[in-house]
Each structure stands twice: as structure tokens, then as C-alpha cells.
């Protein structure tokens, strides 16, 4: 801020006025941004299926409003159950731009997951557990075309993050469990 002293006539004496710098002046220095905390691998299940195909991956935008893909699209047929990946509280369950959306604030993480297009089966404020059903994939409105999908998003505040980072390695890369034969065990009995 700059201070300007004006002399107005002999009888009034000095008058002090405070002026703000014009809009075209030097921009204010932004506060330092704290380092980004890593995303904890708190997910215990996939939102749909066991390990659904990723139709489209996360593509972070270069700028806040720039192009990109702020989540991942997971292949899922209409009517498939959509589950919360971790325990939390439903912060939104309703329609946005004609699509059903469910958002869940993940307990103790400062993170929020989003799922769409989903017909919600939960209400705002409901507590959900990991694997708890939050809705079903809507039959129309998928941006994945005829294959159908669920868009799964992850946010910390207003920053979008890769939702796959919530999955621990054993869940991210594991397929379905398989029992193998025991070749050298004695027969039961």
C-alpha cells in the first residue's frame, strides 16, 4: 500500500490519504503452497467389479480449467452395484447436469471420492463402509458410449488426484483368488 501526502491550501494543513495500487500494478505475491501430502492407499475394494478394465485413465490438466480427464473410467454395465472404496460419509447424493452423482468424504483423510453416472441408494450424511453399496450404474448418460462405465474421481479440496492411487498394490494388481492343488499332501482321513 502506498501513502500519499497532499497539501491542500494554507488553512487546512496536510491531509493524508491511503490509496490502493491500480489493478495493473505489480500483482500480490501468493502465499506459499504447502507440499502435497501423498495419497494414502485406503481403498479396500474397487468401485465396480473385482478388477474392472480402465476404459480411460487419469489425465491431469495443465491448468485449473485446462483440458484433461479428472478421474478414471471403469467399465461397468448398467445396473451394476457401485461401492464406496473406503469408509466415509456421503457428502452428496443427487443429480448434476442430468447425471446421478455420489460423493463420499473418506474418514480421516481429507479426501473425497466421486462416482457417476450412478442412481444413488444412499443419502447425504449417511455413513458408509468400505464395500458398502452407494448406488447402481445408470443405464444412460455414460460418456463411455455403448460399453458403459463409471467415472471415479478423487479430490483433495479442489485439487483432482488419480483415484487409482487409493488402491494398495495388492488390490491394484491382483486378479481373482485361485485355489491351487496341493500335490504332496496326504489324503484326508
Q: Low-confidence segments, ≥5 residues, pLDDT <50?
A: 1-13, 15-19, 29-35
* CATH architecture descriptor text of the domain at 54-172: Distorted Sandwich
Give a short account of the largest sheet: 8 strands, antiparallel
Number of strands: 13
Oligomer: single chain
CATH domain topology of the domain at 54-172: Glucose Permease (Domain IIA)
Number of helices: 2
Beta-strand residue fraction: 25-35%
**What structural class do you assign from the helix and strand content?**
mainly beta
Helical proportion, percent range: under 10%
Mean pLDDT: 80
Radius of gyration: 26 Å
| CATH class division of the domain at 54-172 | Mainly Beta
Order of helices and strands: EHEEEEEEEEEEEEH
What is the strand and helix layout of this fold?
Blueprint: E1 2-7, H1 9-12, E2 14-19, E3 54-56, E4 72-75, E5 81-83, E6 88-96, E7 99-106, E8 111-116, E9 118-120, E10 127-128, E11 133-137, E12 149-156, E13 159-161, H2 169-172
Antiparallel strand pairs: 1-2, 3-4, 4-12, 5-11, 6-7, 6-10, 7-8, 8-12, 9-11, 12-13
Amino acid at each position: 500500500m502506498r501513502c500519499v501526502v497532499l497539501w491542500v491550501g494554507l488553512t487546512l494543513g496536510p491531509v493524508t490519504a491511503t490509496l490502493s495500487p491500480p489493478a495493473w500494478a505489480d500483482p500480490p505475491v501468493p502465499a506459499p503452497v504447502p507440499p502435497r501430502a501423498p495419497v494414502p492407499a485406503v481403498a479396500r475394494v474397487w468401485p465396480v467389479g473385482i478388477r474392472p478394465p480402465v476404459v480411460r485413465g487419469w489425465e491431469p490438466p495443465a491448468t485449473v480449467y485446462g483440458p484433461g480427464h479428472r478421474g478414471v473410467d471403469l467399465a461397468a454395465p448398467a445396473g451394476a452395484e457401485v461401492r464406496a472404496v473406503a469408509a466415509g460419509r456421503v457428502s452428496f447424493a443427487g443429480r448434476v447436469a442430468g447425471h446421478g452423482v455420489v460423493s463420499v468424504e473418506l474418514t480421516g483423510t481429507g479426501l473425497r471420492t466421486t462416482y457417476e453416472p450412478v442412481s444413488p441408494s444412499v443419502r447425504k450424511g449417511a455413513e458408509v463402509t468400505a464395500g458398502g453399496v452407494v448406488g447402481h450404474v445408470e443405464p444412460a448418460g455414460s460418456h463411455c458410449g455403448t460399453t458403459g462405465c463409471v467415472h471415479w474421481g478423487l479430490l483433495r479440496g479442489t485439487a483432482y488426484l488419480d483415484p487409482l492411487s487409493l488402491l494398495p498394490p495388492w488390490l491394484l494388481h491382483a486378479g481373482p483368488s485361485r485355489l491351487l492343488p496341493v500335490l504332496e499332501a496326504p489324503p484326508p482321513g
